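All the exercises in this workshop are built on plain-text protein records. A record pairs a protein's sequence with a compact description of its fold. Backbone structure tokens are a discrete shorthand for how the chain folds in space. Once this layout is familiar, the rest of the handout is easier to follow. As an example, a complete record with its sequence and its structure tokens follows.
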Amino acid sequence: MTTQMDAAELRAELDAAEEILRTATLARLAYDGIDGTPRVIPIGFLWTGEAVVVATHPTAPKFTALRARPRVALTIDTPSPARSLLLRGDAEIDVVDGVVPEYLEAAAKSMQGEDLTSFEASVRETYDRMARISITPDWARYFDFTAGRFPDFLRALTG
């Protein structure tokens, strides 16, 4: 059974979700831990236009888990208006010296001024290297309940 979407359908879902991808500050990343049990964690992210990028340190448990089992799911949502984007894809990991640039760009979505400057200084002091985790979606579904974009099962119930 494949979970990948047709490229045109995938692009249409991602295009519809462009605003939430650009402005939301947190995603929920689901993956299988190294012990095989599921995990869901909140994590800051940056959408590059092609991939969701998150970052961590190579000693973090998720680093080892994602190396072993790269298949992930993400949810990005907003409470009001009620919107959510569901994504699936494979995590690709690159270890870089210093700080992953997208990590700081993601932080800039929720901080400004002195707060952002202080955060960046702290991050640069803490991390001598980071893991850049890039997730290119191969499946996506965008729901916007105020615009009538909701799951098929719900449409059938209310239709």
In short: The beta strands are 26-32, 38-44, 46-47, 52-56, 71-78, 83-97, 129-144. The first strand starts at residue 26 and ends at 32. Residues 60 and 77 are 25 Å apart (CA to CA).
